[in-house]
Amino acid sequence: MGKQINSIKGMNDILPHDMALFNCLLDVVRKSLSGYGYEEISTPILEKTDLFARSIGGATDIVSKEMYTFLDKSDESLTLRPEATAGVVRAGITNNLFYGAQKKLWCYGPMFRYERPQKGRFRQFHQVSVETFGYRNIGIDAELIAISNLIWDRLKIDKPTLEINTMGSFESREAYKSVLVDYFKKFKKDFDQDDKRRIELNPLRLLDTKNIKLKKAIDEAPSMFEYIDDESKNEFIELLALLDRLGIKYQLNNKLVRGLDYYNKTVFEWTTDKLGSQSAICSGGRYDSLVGQLGGADVPACGWALGMERIIELMKLSSHVNENNCDVYVIPVGKDALSFTINLMDKMNRELKDIIIFADYADTGLKSRMKKADKSGAKYAVIVGEDELKQSQVSLKDMRDSSEQKSVSTAGLLKLLKKEKNNG
Question: What's the CA gap between 225 and 217, in Å, rounded?
């Protein structure tokens, strides 16, 4: 027997039960976004390394430590995408999507970061990424937050907390960086290696350092809002008023800066205390200069990214999630029932839409298979036995409400299931 080959550390299989939850989440996301007129796009998981270095920022942990980067056979540096926004912007520029147009786009798929694996944080993980282009008005910021709020409601998970801030214009942000550098000089003795690098390359990153020695210093640091330009302040106040009107609760967090260099003005995170240290489940904001930074026109942009694995964990904690993945459980009994069952399955799947039907072809007894039918969560068990076959019928048992069992014809079975579907 050969040596077992295990999966790569931090890159996990998605097993059938979790895959069902992934698909449930995607169905809710797709319905919510299409209702607001967003179009789906797909981009490659491999991009030129320079795309991420120029967009995310060389001073970020993602670019400096976490990217999967390699030379291909042409000695070109390529990187497995660590996030989706840069690729969507590149696709928009490459395919001339932004010229004279406003775009609302979304995509989903795997991302890759070389991080220390832990619950809710993996080296291959999946994101839904929502991007808007060409909208300068603060209304798009509110719409994006409203859509994420709608997704939580439709998933019926415990409502996460919305933390929100404004980073102002790039000019006011640079002024605030200088203030931070002066302020943190007296705490340099407590810096770790990352903090020393951050204060040189991007002082804002100090505000979300994991260095506990700096916690008190960060809590007492000068407020970013005091250095924000008037236009950004007024837009932020307007955004908060829109959220109030929508009934969306939020917490102001003037230390929130996000982990990517391309953000300006609005930044926000939806956070939860249900997942331990990995509290952020959806993060976003404005990145008005990114398209121009990557060679396109001056196009304002705003969006968010949702961590699918973390949402799945919240769905598992919710009592509202239906973990069952079966509506009708079919049990053929005896060899003569096999041909009938194959034909019945084909007929049901052709005539019934959006109903999940499982046929159990195991050689075990009826009693054990009925237990599996009950465990599957199916509303009905359909038993194809010898006595029923003689009359071209099946035995139908209600597994959830009445426990009634009766014989019905194939036509009667299809009629009942169609009626159930239409009423439910």
Answer: 17
